[in-house]
Specification:
Blueprint: H1 2-16, E1 17-21, E2 28-33, E3 38-42, E4 45-50, E5 53-59, E6 65-72, E7 75-82, E8 87-90, H2 92-100, E9 114-122, E10 128-136, E11 142-150, E12 155-163
Antiparallel strand pairs: 1-2, 2-3, 3-4, 5-6, 6-7, 7-8, 9-10, 10-11, 11-12
Length: 164
């Protein structure tokens, strides 16, 4: 009986909540996954609520930032929570600008093409965020790969692509 109850609670936690611990285990975050929205709490402090569906999250190695990925209307959404300043930053436009920037000719991406991104994680030594990407070009061809985004500098630093 007790084991059955524990299994039920475990299933409820997996379905409706996701917990993530910082690399040094001094912080934790809980995402309460609702239908069509989620709420993020850091160390028992409510941080923000989003109208997106929760996808994943991860702390930077210095425990300064928490990246949260959601999905809204079929598109991934990205927000970075600055834990020290208690500030949430929607970085969707920053990513788009970085991908289209003249400094960023590392991606074969043009305005109007479809860009799909997926958060992979933070760099161990810098405030760089790694994303997998897929670009559907206007001619129907696809390019996939990954890139590192300098979060504070707003630039793509390294891109590795594979053309299909």
């Amino acid at each position: 009986m007790i084991i059955s109850l524990l299994l039920c609670w475990s299933l409820i936690l997996i379905l409706f909540f996701e917990i993530e611990f910082s690399h040094d285990r001094t912080r934790w975050t809980l995402a309460g996954k609702g239908i069509g929205n989620y709420r993020v709490t850091v160390n028992d402090c409510p941080t923000f609520t989003s109208g997106s569906r929760f996808k994943k999250m991860g702390f930077s190695y210095d425990n300064k930032y928490l990246m949260v990925q959601g999905k809204h209307s079929g598109k991934n959404t990205f927000a970075v929570f600055n834990i020290e300043k208690e500030f949430i930053h929607n970085i969707n436009e920053d990513i788009q600008k970085a991908c289209l920037s003249e400094d960023s000719q590392r991606l074969d991406y043009q305005a109007g093409e479809k860009l799909s991104l997926d958060f992979i994680g933070w760099h161990q030594d810098y405030d760089y965020i790694k994303f997998d990407y897929e670009i559907t070009h206007s001619d129907g061809s696809e390019t996939t790969g990954f890139f590192w985004l300098d979060y504070e500098g707003g630039k793509i630093l390294v891109a590795n692509e594979e053309i299909k």
